[in-house]
């Protein structure tokens, strides 16, 4: 704690130095110039003859030279004084200053850096206090009906209404509370915008478009963007000002309460060059005036789509936006999606490191995800894909989709009346206190960390606050820290790093001449500019953090405070994260809301999977203790360690006789008859039961099936669901085959099993082949046993099932098969290298990240006299590893170098 005063003293000294330098340059320089060269203004205007004689004559006494130097000094001082005045006014107004001409640009940059340094260090002084008080007064002023408050407009930049909202406090006259000049926000014009729709979204009526036009005519535009001169012609990148409109009386529901504005037609949607965008139809004034603007922080309910356009069933209700675990944790689908991607990345990294010849790994396969993570992943895959009969993405597809995810601009705090509540991260100034504050902070932190890869987000947490939020998580090294998380020793160090990053981003915006961080990201995608969030308890640094949060709208910086917060929005939370009291700009929206929250055990398990998603070796990622499983949670299917061979089902008496039903489990689950696939009649629960029964040819009990297929159902409903699934299987198969007598699912001695006489399963053929190979005692018999394996493994096990037992067996079967193919290639490489190469090439189609397989292929290709093919194989591996943000390891690179030096080893 002794470091805090020293850090604050350093900040104050830095601010004093900047302020003294500004005073010296503004006051000392002109005094010095006057003392040396006198007044820059002549006592009398010289004649043309005097000017000519002075310039053409010899300057023996250096008077002309000294006068020229003095004049240049006065010109530079005037430019610096103008830059200081401009930057000060624009800083207090909360908007960027227009760039001065190139000769004066260095002086403007100097003035901007000095002013920013001084104001950040003295954020509690009168100037900034006046600005903050003015903004707070404006934010808490009551707004007229049909009129969103400026504070809400400012805080909801880029929410459900779209991106591009930017806060403005107005000019100097608008900052005084007693002034009648209106405040405003600004909107950056995008393609497709027009003034009518902007007015309708801001005020509830498009007839106010003329007021937006009048308020925006003299607004400074970014460099290269034309001024707004015609309401019918907008250009992408222009800024328009949305003034605060006050009515003398509350408007009635009748359209006569808002008279139609006179003037030109509203502008057509903005078109990019070459686009042919149809004009947006103008709504009737009465209809537009009678609509109220929904609060943009709470997303409005989705409008029902026409049946012809919706890809899902029209009778399905929208899935809930929150997920609740048995432990009591509640979070959104955004966090569940991030965890699903982390699980996929973890598995792919493990596949990359797997060595088929490593018997230790074969006998100890990777553990499944922790229970909270597994439940979150299943909920996401079900609600986003399986429940809508959409293909469930593979691990590689999930990771590929993450590449196109933009930097997070909002955080979803929770729900209110079943609608998600979202706040922009840029400029976030939110304080949490009460029994549920830490649980909610964990949910926000984990969700942002899940989206932090590829420099999309970064969190600053002081070590004491990290220990408070995540007790028991020991991140002792940088390698064990998830991407996007920076842990500082103290609060003061975190605030200092935040200030440094704010100055750096301000300079980047000035150098690149971009209006905000989003534009800078688009102009230079290679520059790492993550959304930055401070999560800390900061009673000692409230003024500095408040100033940074105010400037964060433009620079992508926000603050989540773990204590009451009078400078922004402050929420009091109950134990179950319900907002009972709120103060600040978003108080009305957040009061009564149910915020997302995580227990410390669930958060620690999620943090561990985010760490392992980077490819950190298991020895470094499994140091945290596993989270205890809730008492009410059912035990999962034990991961095979090693898994016993599946019993071979009884064969029919005539081996050549085809069975009437074929169950396909390698790939999507599908039933086939001799006439083709069965496409109708089979329930999804019945399909899941068929896959589970195929994994247990000897039979299962009803309790087993219920515990793994319907773990969250009450006992009575789970039993009914099981009976319904069995009945649906029998009815569907009897209808498809025309056979009325068979049961298809045999029930004897309390066990249910598939009738192997009538149902053929592709999985059984593959497991029989693998079992026969494991029992072979010599190389020829093993080769003969493994030869059918490439043709039998046509896809991953039950790729459309999301149950944990299905994913566990899917990964185990994939590893066993890939190892068998590698073993077959090893047995063939001496006598039949071409066959071995074909086998390995087939293996990497099912395991595209197994680096050891690529090394073996490269050796075989070089042995066959194709070193160029080995080079292409290496390039293919490097291309595929970009999905994991990885490169071939040193061993693979060294192998390529050795093979190129000696083409025929």
UniProtKB/TrEMBL annotation:
Biased composition (Polar residues): 317-327
Domain of life, source organism: Bacteria
Transmembrane segments: 12-36, 64-93, 323-345
Annotated spans, Disordered: 137-185, 222-327, 349-374, 391-418, 614-661
Biased composition (Pro residues): 297-309, 637-652
PROSITE patterns: LYSM
Record's keyword annotation contains Metal-binding: no
Biased composition (Basic and acidic residues): 273-289
Pfam families, sorted: BTAD (PF03704)
Any one biological process term the GO annotation gives: phosphorelay signal transduction system
Keywords on record: DNA-binding, Membrane, Transmembrane, Transmembrane helix
LysM domain boundaries: 185-242
Compositional bias segments (type: Low complexity): 137-146, 250-260
GO molecular function: DNA binding
PANTHER family: TRANSCRIPTIONAL REGULATOR REDD-RELATED (PTHR35807)
Family under the similarity heading: Belongs to the AfsR/DnrI/RedD regulatory family.
Protein name: LysM peptidoglycan-binding domain-containing protein
């Amino acid at each position: 704690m002794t470091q805090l005063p020293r850090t604050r003293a350093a900040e104050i000294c830095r601010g004093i130095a900047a302020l003294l330098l500004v005073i010296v340059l503004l006051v000392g320089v002109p005094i010095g110039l006057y003392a040396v060269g006198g007044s820059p203004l002549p006592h009398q205007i010289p004649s043309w003859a005097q000017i000519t004689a002075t310039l053409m004559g010899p300057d023996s006494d250096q008077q002309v030279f000294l006068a020229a130097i003095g004049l240049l000094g006065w010109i530079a001082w005037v430019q610096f004084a103008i830059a200081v005045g401009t930057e000060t006014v624009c800083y207090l107004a909360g908007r960027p200053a227009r760039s001065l001409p190139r000769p004066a640009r260095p002086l403007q940059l100097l003035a901007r850096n000095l002013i920013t340094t001084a104001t950040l260090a003295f954020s509690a002084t009168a100037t900034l206090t006046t600005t903050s008080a003015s903004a707070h007064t404006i934010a808490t002023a009551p707004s007229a009906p049909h009129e969103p408050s400026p504070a809400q407009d400012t805080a909801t930049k880029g929410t459900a209404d779209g991106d591009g909202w930017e806060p403005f406090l107005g000019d100097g006259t608008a900052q005084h509370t007693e002034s009648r000049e209106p405040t405003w926000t600004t909107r950056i014009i995008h393609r497709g915008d027009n003034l009518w729709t902007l007015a309708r979204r801001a005020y509830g009526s498009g007839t106010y478009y003329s007021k937006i036009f009048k308020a925006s005519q003299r607004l400074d535009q970014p460099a290269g963007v034309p001024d707004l001169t015609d309401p019918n012609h907008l250009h992408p990148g222009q800024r328009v000002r949305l003034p605060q409109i006050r009515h003398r009386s509350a408007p009635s529901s009748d359209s006569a309460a808002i008279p139609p504005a006179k003037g030109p037609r509203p502008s057509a949607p903005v078109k990019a060059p070459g686009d042919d965008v149809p004009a947006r139809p103008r709504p009737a004034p009465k209809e537009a005036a009678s609509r109220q603007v929904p609060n943009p922080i709470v997303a409005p309910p989705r409008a029902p789509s026409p049946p012809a356009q919706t890809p899902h069933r029209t009778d399905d209700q929208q899935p809930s936006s929150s997920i609740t675990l048995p432990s009591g944790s509640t979070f959104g689908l955004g966090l569940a999606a991030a965890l699903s991607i982390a699980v996929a990345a973890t598995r792919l990294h493990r596949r990359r490191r797997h060595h088929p010849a490593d018997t230790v790994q074969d006998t100890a396969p990777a553990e499944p995800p922790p229970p909270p993570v597994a439940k979150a992943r299943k909920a996401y895959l079900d609600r986003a894909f399986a429940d809508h009969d959409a293909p469930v993405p593979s691990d590689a597809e999930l990771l590929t989709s993450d590449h196109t995810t933009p930097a997070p601009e909002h955080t979803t705090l929770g729900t209110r009346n079943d609608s998600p509540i979202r706040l922009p991260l840029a400029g976030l100034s939110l304080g949490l206190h009460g029994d549920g504050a830490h649980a909610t902070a964990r949910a926000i932190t984990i969700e942002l960390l899940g989206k932090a890869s590829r420099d999309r987000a970064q969190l600053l947490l002081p070590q004491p606050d990290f220990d408070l939020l995540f007790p028991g998580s020991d991140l002792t090294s940088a390698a064990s820290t998830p991407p996007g998380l920076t842990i500082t020793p103290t609060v003061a160090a975190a605030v200092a790093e935040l200030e440094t990053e704010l100055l750096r981003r301000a300079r980047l915006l000035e150098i690149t001449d971009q209006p905000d961080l989003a534009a800078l990201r688009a102009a230079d995608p290679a520059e790492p500019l993550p959304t930055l969030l401070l999560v800390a308890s900061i009673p000692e640094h409230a003024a500095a953090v408040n100033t940074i949060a105010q400037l964060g709208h433009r620079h992508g910086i926000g603050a989540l405070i773990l204590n009451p917060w009078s400078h922004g929005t402050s929420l009091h939370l109950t134990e179950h994260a319900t907002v009972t009291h709120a103060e600040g700009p978003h108080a009305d929206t957040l009061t009564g809301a149910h915020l997302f929250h995580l227990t410390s055990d669930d958060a620690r398990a999620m943090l561990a999977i985010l760490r392992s998603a980077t490819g950190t070796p298991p020895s470094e990622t499994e140091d945290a203790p596993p989270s205890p499983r809730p008492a009410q949670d059912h035990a999962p299917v034990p991961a095979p360690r090693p898994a016993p061979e599946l019993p071979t089902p009884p064969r029919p008496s005539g081996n050549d006789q085809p069975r009437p039903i074929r169950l396909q489990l390698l790939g999507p689950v599908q039933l086939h008859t001799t006439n083709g696939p069965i496409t109708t009649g089979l329930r999804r629960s019945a399909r899941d039961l068929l896959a589970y029964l195929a994994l247990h040819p000897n039979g299962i009990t009803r309790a087993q099936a219920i515990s793994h297929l319907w773990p969250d159902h009450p006992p009575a409903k789970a039993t009914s669901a099981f009976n319904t699934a069995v009945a649906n299987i029998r009815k569907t198969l009897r209808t498809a085959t025309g056979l009325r007598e068979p049961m298809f699912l045999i029930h004897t001695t309390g066990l249910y099993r598939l009738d192997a006489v009538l149902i053929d399963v592709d999985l059984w053929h593959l497991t029989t082949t693998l079992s026969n190979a494991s029992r072979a005692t010599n190389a020829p018999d093993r080769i003969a046993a493994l030869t059918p394996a490439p043709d039998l493994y046509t896809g991953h096990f039950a790729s459309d099932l999301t149950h944990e037992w299905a994913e566990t067996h899917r990964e185990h079967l994939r590893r066993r098969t890939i190892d068998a193919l590698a073993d077959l290639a090893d047995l063939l490489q001496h006598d039949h290298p071409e066959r071995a190469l074909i086998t390995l090439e087939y293996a990497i189609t099912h395991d595209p990240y197994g680096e050891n397989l690529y090394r073996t292929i490269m050796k075989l290709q070089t042995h066959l006299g194709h070193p160029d093919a080995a080079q292409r194989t290496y390039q293919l591996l490097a291309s595929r590893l970009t999905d994991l943000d990885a490169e071939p390891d040193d061993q693979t690179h060294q192998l390529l170098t050795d093979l190129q030096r000696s083409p025929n080893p």
